[in-house]
Amino acid sequence: MNAGDRIPPLEIPVTRTLIVAGAIASRDYQDVHHDPERARQKGSPDIFMNILTTNGLVGRYITDHFGPRAELRRVAIRLGAPNHPGDTMVLTGTVEQVDGDTATVRVVGANGIGTHVTGTVTVRIPA
User: Fold this and answer.
1) Which residue, 44, 71, 85, 100, has most beta carbons within 10 Å?
2) pLDDT tens profile 40-67
3) The CA-based dihedral angle spanning residues 83, 58, 34, 80, taken in that order and rounded to the nearest 10 degrees
4) In Å, what is the CA distance from 69 to each residue of 4, 57, 65, 102, 125?
5) How is residue 32 annotated by DSSP?
């Protein structure tokens, strides 16, 4: 792994089930993550994915690429455009820095309405 290396994109279909299951798994019972009518009352066209689900998907993207021995040391993300059911989020990554067995990867996740997530992940790949 070298600075500048690009990680192959990962397409994630954003389903209603993924959004609701992610919210339940992370104990986020906010109605905007499972109740379409309440989400609309609050100004959203539909339910939307929570940050903890996005965080998990970013982590999965990195560990799927670097393998089962990869250790996530730091994940720092910021959300933008929401992920709604029926869309697809495409994650892409670029290795920004390598220091021994540790790399910093810049991750971007985009959907049909814009950039859903940006951030960096520090990952250690033991020898």
Assistant:
1) 85
2) 999 999 999 999 999 999 999 999 999 9
3) -40
4) 22, 17, 11, 12, 6
5) G
Q: pLDDT value at position 43?
A: 96
Quote the CA–CA distance of 122 and 35 in Å, as a whole number.
Answer: 35
Question: Is the domain 6-124 a CATH 3.40.50.300 member?
Answer: no
Q: What are 44's two structure tokens? A: 């959203």
22-61 burial code (b ≥16 CB/10 A, e <16): bbeeeeeeeebbbebeebeeeeeebbbbbeebbbebbbeb
Q: What does the alpha-carbon distance between residue 116 and residue 59 come to, in Å, rounded to a whole number? A: 15
On the question of pLDDT at 1 being above 90, the answer is no
Q: What are phi and psi of 79, to 5 degrees?
A: -90, 150
Exposure class string for 103-119: b at 16+ Cβ within 10 A, else e: bbbebbbbbeeeebbbb
Q: Say if CB 90 and CB 9 are below 8 A apart.
A: yes
